[in-house]
Write a structure and sequence with these properties.
With 356 residues, the chain is α/β, with parallel strands linked by helices. 31% of the residues lie in helices and 19% in strands. It contains 13 helices and 16 strands. The strands form four sheets. Strands 4-3-2-7-10-11-1-12 form an eight-stranded mixed sheet, sandwiched between helices. Strand 2, helix 2 and strand 3 form a beta-alpha-beta unit. The chain is globular. The chain binds iron/sulfur cluster. Iron/sulfur cluster is lined by residues 263-264, 288-289, 291-292, 314-315, 328-330, 341-342.
Length: 356
C-alpha cells in the first residue's frame, strides 16, 4: 500500500512544499526528466470558487523542483469543452506564476495527440502528457454532478482533446475514466482540498476544508477522497473499475496516512455562504477547525440536509455538556459523539442516519 501525506492549513504554497519535502519527491524523479504539472483548470474561475487548483500549489511545486535543480518544467492543461484554457490560466493566477518562475503554460487543446490502447478501447491522449518524463497531477477534491466526486483519476481527462472528452460523456464517464487511468498514470499526485466545491466541478459552493494530500497511487487517493466526502465507493464506480484494470489500489488503512500536523493548526472555519450556510443552519459551532466542519458539511449534504439532531462541533466544546450529537474529539461532553480528529464525513453521516 502506498503512503499518503496529509497536511492542514490555508497557505497552499507552504503546505505544498512541506508535503514534497516530507515525501522526498526529488528522489523519485528520474535524472534529466522533464516534469509536467497538470492542475485542474476545468473552467475560467478563481480557486476560491472551489473549482480550480490554487496558484500557490503550482508555485510551491515549481519552487521545490527548481530549488532541487530541475529546470525543464511545464504546466499542461485543457479546460472543459466550451471554455478557453488561456482564460482559465489568467483567472486562476497562473500567468503570473509562469512569468515569475520562467515556466511555460501549454494549452492541451492545441497539442498533438496519439492513440493509446486501453482496456476499454483505443483513446486519443495529448502528446505533452504522454511524453512527460515525470507527470505531477494537481487535482481539486470536489463534488461532481455526474460522477458524485472528482479528484485524481478524473483530473486526467484534461489531458484529452475536446473530441475525446465529448466521447467520454457519451459513454457515461465511468468506464472511460477508469480506462484512462490504466493508460496515463501520473507517478505523483498532490490534492488541493483547501476549498473544493460541494457538488459542482465548476464551483460556486466552496467547502473550506483546509487540507492537502500527497500520494503516489491515484486510485487510493480517490478512495480516500470518497471517505472524506462521505461517499461510499459504490457511488463512484470508476474507482474500483480503475483498480480492476490495474491502475492502483482502492484500499485505505489508517496507517497509510502520515499526518504532518493537526487539524487545529489548519485554521478556523470561515463563515459559510449560500448552500453551505443553509445546510449548517442550527449547528452549534464554537471554534471548529476547517477540516472538521468540512466533514460535517459533506455529511449533512450526503444525508439530504434534514437530520433533526442537535449538533455541536468545535474546540470551544471541550469539557462542556451537550444534549445531542457532538462532532469530533473535542465534543466528549455530548450525549452522543462521533470520535476522531477530525472525523470523516462517512462516520458523521452514519451517526446522523443511525447506521453506526
Ligand atoms: S475534533 Fe476538535 S481539534 Fe479535532 S478537528 Fe474537530 S474541532 Fe478540531
Amino acid at each position: 500500500m502506498s503512503k499518503m501525506y496529509e497536511i492542514f492549513g490555508n497557505d497552499a504554497y507552504s503546505m505544498t512544499r512541506k508535503l514534497m519535502e516530507a515525501a522526498e519527491v526529488i528522489k523519485k524523479i528520474p535524472s534529466g526528466a522533464n516534469v509536467a504539472l497538470k492542475p485542474n483548470l476545468v473552467v475560467s474561475k478563481s480557486p476560491d470558487s472551489g473549482a480550480t487548483t490554487h496558484a500557490g500549489v503550482l508555485a510551491g511545486v515549481i519552487s521545490y523542483l527548481q530549488d532541487h535543480g530541475i529546470r525543464d518544467i511545464s504546466v499542461i492543461e485543457g479546460s472543459w469543452v466550451g471554455d478557453s484554457t488561456g482564460r482559465a490560466f489568467r483567472a486562476a493566477g497562473y500567468e503570473e506564476v509562469g512569468r515569475k518562475y520562467g515556466v511555460p503554460l501549454y494549452d492541451l487543446k492545441q497539442d498533438q495527440t496519439r492513440t493509446v490502447q486501453t482496456p476499454l478501447r483505443p483513446m486519443e491522449i495529448c502528446g505533452r502528457a504522454l511524453d512527460a518524463g515525470y507527470l505531477i497531477n494537481l487535482p481539486v477534491l470536489k463534488g461532481h454532478c455526474q460522477t458524485a466526486m472528482t479528484c485524481a483519476l478524473k483530473n486526467c481527462k484534461g489531458c484529452l482533446p475536446d473530441r475525446e472528452k465529448r466521447r467520454f460523456h457519451a459513454e457515461g464517464l465511468m468506464k472511460p475514466i477508469a480506462a484512462l487511468a490504466s493508460a496515463l498514470r501520473p507517478p505523483l499526485t498532490i490534492v488541493d482540498s483547501i476549498c473544493g466545491d460541494l457538488d459542482f466541478e465548476e464551483g460556486g459552493n466552496p467547502v473550506y476544508t483546509g487540507r492537502m494530500i500527497l500520494g503516489e497511487d491515484p486510485v487510493q487517493l480517490d478512495a480516500y477522497g470518497c471517505r472524506l466526502m462521505g461517499l461510499p465507493l459504490s457511488e463512484v464506480p470508476y474507482i474500483e473499475l480503475a483498480e480492476q484494470w490495474g491502475a492502483g489500489s482502492a484500499q485505505v488503512c489508517g496507517e497509510d496516512i502520515l499526518r504532518l500536523n493537526e487539524p487545529s493548526q489548519g485554521g478556523r472555519y470561515p463563515k459559510p455562504s449560500a448552500k453551505v450556510a443553509r445546510l449548517t443552519a442550527g449547528v452549534c459551532q464554537d471554534s471548529a477547525c476547517s477540516a472538521c466542519y468540512a466533514s460535517l458539511v459533506r455529511a449533512l449534504y450526503s444525508c439530504g440536509g434534514s437530520h433533526g439532531t442537535p449538533i455541536a462541533i468545535g474546540q470551544g466544546w471541550k469539557g462542556r455538556e451537550f444534549q445531542g450529537l457532538g462532532i469530533g474529539r473535542c465534543c466528549d461532553g455530548a450525549s452522543r459523539q462521533v470520535k476522531g480528529c477530525p472525523p470523516t464525513a462517512d462516520a458523521i453521516a452514519a451517526a446522523l442516519t443511525g447506521k453506526e
